[in-house]
Amino acid sequence: MNKITRKGFLKIAAAAAMSGVTAGALAACESASSAVSGAASAGSAPAAGAAYIPGTYEGTAQGISSTVKVTMTFSETAVTDVVVDTSGETASYGAAAADELRQQLLEAGSAEIDGVSGSTITSDAVMKAAQSCYAQARGEAVVTSVQLPTGDENDWLGAEPDIDEAAITETWDTDIVIVGAGNGGMCAAAYAAQNGLNFRIIEQNVAVQDTRHWYGAIDTSAAQAAGAEPCDRAKLLSEISRYASGKCDQRVVKTWINESAAMHDFVAGILEGEYGWTCEFTSGSEATWPAENAEHNTDYLYPVQEHNYMASETASGMQRNQAFQDYIEKLGYSIDFSTALAKLEKDDTGRITGIIAQSNDDGHFIRINAAKGVLLACGGYPGNPYMMEQLDPLGTSVTTACSYSPADRGYGIRAAVWAGANLDKEAAPMLFDRGVVPPGQDAGYVDSESAFGGKAFPGPIRQYNPGTQPFLKVNRNGERFANESSPYNDIVYAAAHQPGRVYAQIHDDNWYEDVQRFHTIGCSAQTRNGGPDYVLPKMEEAEAAGCFFRADTLDELADKLGFTGEAKDTFLATVERYNELYDAQEDTDFGKPAYRLSAIRKAPFYGCWLGASLLTTEQGIAINEKGQALDTNNQPMPGLYVTGDMSGSFFANNYPCLMAGVAMGRTMTFAIKAIKQMAGLEEA
């Protein structure tokens, strides 16, 4: 992922115009820091020829667990002494870094230092506090940095910032504001640009965000060209509603079903027409579980039509979002990078009239008036541990690794809720059964000084793709506990009832033949289609991380996996029982289809411990079928539209992972829908 440069986002406004910002947590859509200014320093200025007003100045900033204080003494030309107080930080990390940070500040001649590895948050706080000292010494505004805009462990939402008019030093006027240059935002921008609309798109990072390549769309021109049978749309609507336990808005789902084909035609028109890419289309038997599964899960799994442009992107060197950026720039538009959402603005009638944004380069505020509306496409909240723990305690408890964008911290969601929007009441995490970890590691957060919010998931690998295969899985007692032939998140939720909320996966050297017979679909098919050339490097990577083991005997494998005593005996007995079920071609214990059973007899034997890998969250702001945000009475909020992972009304409980690409198809369909609505390109 491309992220904003470390020094860039740490710059804090020092201009006197900033003195009107009210102290409080300033939220930024996917932003990492915020600042407020106090009173100007006595109207003083350095003497002629001097850089600083001699004296001693103090600055503070919020660290990981305490307020960090920096005291700096200046002569007219240089810093002569620095005191760094990090005594309230974690003893082995932030507190221990004080001496090195002090030395860096003395040598740097500025507040922009490298910091100390492993003490990122404390280092950032020291730099912010030092910037305040420099501002005071130059006779500028006294800059006081406040707590990171994340809420806290007891209140994920926090308070909306109160930004004084004097702090807003720039105003932009446009028709449409798009917040976020990710999958939804870039699709919206490309559509707006193609139609010659007046819009601005802002992104708090310094580059467009990573592309999620696959997207689901229904009965497209690609499907027709491939000779695919038309989808049973009523059945698809029913299945998505069933996945959500009926907690979705079926009218919202129908917008995707009915308008995703037009979305695909738009995307194809650019990627194929402008850039010569070729769509990889998947449907039919490749996207469907084998017929043998039907007797066990009748009508439970429903394939959709999947589209992917990844292969062509390899030759071009671009991802889809980068191609969209190139496309809009050729049409005369640009992306305002390093510009983060601070809050939404509305008039006396409640209509959203625009936003206040903050420059991450120098901290100044910008009012962006949007005559026709605002589209929020800021992502979910997987990178915010406060929101994860409070909004999705179950998903958090079974997760061992992550593959999310670290910038997805829920700031767009928070800004919308501050403005009166209705957040879905139930979590919907996108969990993949691929979070490989060493033996003995529990699921859930571990303390991490260098991570945002001081917490991180322990898995060293983003996703171990073979973890999805329906091999034998056992708990720490050596017991089998579930039918392993299931959608990705089912096994990790089943592990919520097991010791440590993790499980071991076991298979033998016939694994390649087994995965061909298993015929898993969606992204797990990479293991089947990639074969040994794809899988063996994955195994070696996990092995090097101490998370994957191979052995010549099952007894040896049990030892490597950490089974001892009665648990080891149970483990060996479980493998023997599993072989008996395979021989009988009937799983009388948990009902797994026979074609997904496998023998464990041919050495070497393989094993690893797994939990969930969190990709993103789908709990978002409630929307209607037009993409409009809904207020807490489920009435449309004039002028506000939402798409992508921060939009709701579509998923609940989980993500229907076996309907490959449905979330991304939804994201891009509603991105276009919102632009059409705001621009009057269809009936409002």
Automatic annotation (TrEMBL):
<dbReference type="GO" id="GO:0016020">
    <property type="term" value="C:membrane"/>
</dbReference>
<dbReference type="InterPro" id="IPR007329">
    <property type="entry name" value="FMN-bd"/>
</dbReference>
<dbReference type="InterPro" id="IPR003953">
    <property type="entry name" value="FAD-dep_OxRdtase_2_FAD-bd"/>
</dbReference>
<dbReference type="GO" id="GO:0010181">
    <property type="term" value="F:FMN binding"/>
</dbReference>
<dbReference type="Pfam" id="PF00890">
    <property type="entry name" value="FAD_binding_2"/>
</dbReference>
<dbReference type="Pfam" id="PF04205">
    <property type="entry name" value="FMN_bind"/>
</dbReference>
<keyword id="KW-0560">Oxidoreductase</keyword>
<dbReference type="InterPro" id="IPR027477">
    <property type="entry name" value="Succ_DH/fumarate_Rdtase_cat_sf"/>
</dbReference>
<dbReference type="InterPro" id="IPR050315">
    <property type="entry name" value="FAD-oxidoreductase_2"/>
</dbReference>
<comment type="similarity">
    <text>Belongs to the FAD-dependent oxidoreductase 2 family. FRD/SDH subfamily.</text>
</comment>
<feature type="signal peptide">
    <location>
        <begin position="1"/>
        <end position="27"/>
    </location>
</feature>
<keyword id="KW-0285">Flavoprotein</keyword>
<keyword id="KW-0274">FAD</keyword>
<feature type="domain" description="FMN-binding">
    <location>
        <begin position="63"/>
        <end position="137"/>
    </location>
</feature>
<dbReference type="GO" id="GO:0033765">
    <property type="term" value="F:steroid dehydrogenase activity, acting on the CH-CH group of donors"/>
</dbReference>
<keyword id="KW-0732">Signal</keyword>
<dbReference type="InterPro" id="IPR006311">
    <property type="entry name" value="TAT_signal"/>
</dbReference>
<protein>
    <recommendedName>
        <fullName>Urocanate reductase</fullName>
        <ecNumber>1.3.99.33</ecNumber>
    </recommendedName>
</protein>
<dbReference type="InterPro" id="IPR036188">
    <property type="entry name" value="FAD/NAD-bd_sf"/>
</dbReference>
